[in-house]
Amino acid sequence: MATFFGEVVVAPSRAGVDDEESAEEAREETPEDREIRRELEKKREIDVLWTLKSGASTESSADEPFVCSKFIVAIGHNAAAFLSSFILDSVCWEVVGVAKLWNEWCRTSNTTNVLPTDSFCLFYRLISDPTVLLCQCSCYVAEDQQFQWLEKVFGCMRKEDLQVTILSTCPVADYKTQESTLTLPSPFLKALKTKEFKEEVCCPLLEQPNIVRDLPAA
Amino acid sequence: MFVPCDRGGGSASSDFKGFTLLMPAVSVGNVGQLATDLVISTLNMTKVGYFYTDCLVPMVGNNPYATAEENSMELSINAEVYSLPSKKLVVLQIRSPFIKNKYRPFCQTLLSWVKSSKCARVVLLSSSHAYQRDDEQLLGTPLRYLLTPDLEKAVGGLMQELNWKEMEKVAAYPRINDTEKVLHIPGGGITKLLFTESCSKGIQMAVLLKFCSEGDNIPDAFALVNYLNEWLQLVKSEVNTSSQWKIPSSWRLLFGNGLPPALF
User: To which protein family does this belong (chain B) (predicted)?
Assistant: First the structure.
């Protein structure tokens, strides 16, 4: 489809496969190519480190999946800031994990004492109910890393009776509606829910043809 | 890769033995995907599952084929499978582009799913850049087909009767050596890869494609789906060939929102 005014086309080619890319792949991969590709893949790997009760850090794969009843994920600077301002504090919540990643857009900070302007991905647990987890992910997780993030984070938790809430923001200009977005009272909330979610939703559902993409969609 | 929906039908709803798999290639103008939307919407097909894959950009939204409040709240993601057992038809709709370097693994997994689910044949809807046509291709119909050798034996004769045009091969080294011809589908996404892989794996595959450019591709989608209908006879052919297809509700606002009144 042609782009209309206001649409930001991210993909370089609608065909989904650049002709140069397919020509490149058609060449035989030399051992050097393979090595370079492996190094690049390693650089783009996501590390999720959980801090156990004892304070020692350990790789996520070594742990038993832990019990989680509620998992709230805030993706993007706005959603992360919302949690910092209204929910998180050092009395009720403790840091229990961090995800480290690198891509062309950002590198996550190494510390857990982060500034609001840093790129980070931290996991918190409610001290009074350790099955309630919260994630602030203000760093951009690239397309090729989203699935990995998903598998590594959710791979550590038991999924039975788990309720997941995802908080995210999108520009109003991306919202498709009959009227012009200039006249819309913004900001406004919209929701998407799975059919298993039986509780009341606090705002209207997202109407067609609007969609959500990237990490919140994953 | 394929995850069936939890429905009362159980495994019966994901038994595709002998079915025709219809699917789009993400290609120029998204024509294949638009045509697939028309098929799913018109035949009111039931979703039977989705592909859990890391090869496509994630996306989610509410039911794009909603017709009323009641059916508008089902979530829909980037690769979903719909079925219509009465016509032995199963449709895969792909809604987002491939993640870089992931299209090959996707093709391999897809073709092994085709084999394991015992689909009789695959029909791939696609498109190709109109500006790459040569002088001869500029004249006549912009629609083309391709058949793998296994399917050629079965339906090659029918294509002759329908007076369809086979996609021409082009010289591998134009003006240097005109005798060596290769298949070239610019803007066709994974079309060529899927086709050549199907040829070598003995899968019965047909490719139906239209030459087009980016723009308002709705007429291209109608042309492609009517072309498909000439062969598969999914709906009764009407004189007014666009009225037999139902446009899905998600096609609203394809060209942007309403204008701000302050503009005038």
Answer: Belongs to the PSMG2 family.
Contacts with A195 (C-beta within 8 Å, 6 or more apart), sequence order: B73, B74, B75
What is the per-residue burial (b if ≥16 Cβ within 10 Å, else e) of B176-192? Answer: eeeeeeebbbbbbbbbb
| Exposed / middle / buried, residue B259 (Cβ in 10 Å: 0-12, 13-18, 19+) | exposed
| Radius of gyration of chain B measured on its C-alpha atoms | 19
For the stretch B170-187, pLDDT in tens is 888 877 877 888 899 999
Predicted ipTM of the assembly: 0.79
C-alpha distance from residue B218 to each of A216, B67, B94, B136, B242 (Å)? 30, 20, 17, 25, 10
Alpha carbons A84 and B171: distance in angstroms, whole number? 62
The H or E element that residue B37 is part of is helix B31-42
State how far the Cα of B54 lies from the Cα of A63, in Å rounded to an integer.
24
Alpha-helical segments (H) within chain A: 19-26, 31-43, 77-86, 143-154, 214-217
Nearest CB among A144, A178, A194 relative to B99 is that of A144
**How many residues does the structure list for chain B?**
264
A68: which 2 tokens?
Answer: 């989680």
- Cross-strand bridge partners of residue B59: A213
What's the token pair of residue B137? 């291709």
- Closest alpha carbon within chain A to B220: A1
Reported pTM:
0.86
CA-wise closest residue to B144 among B45, B88, B212: B212
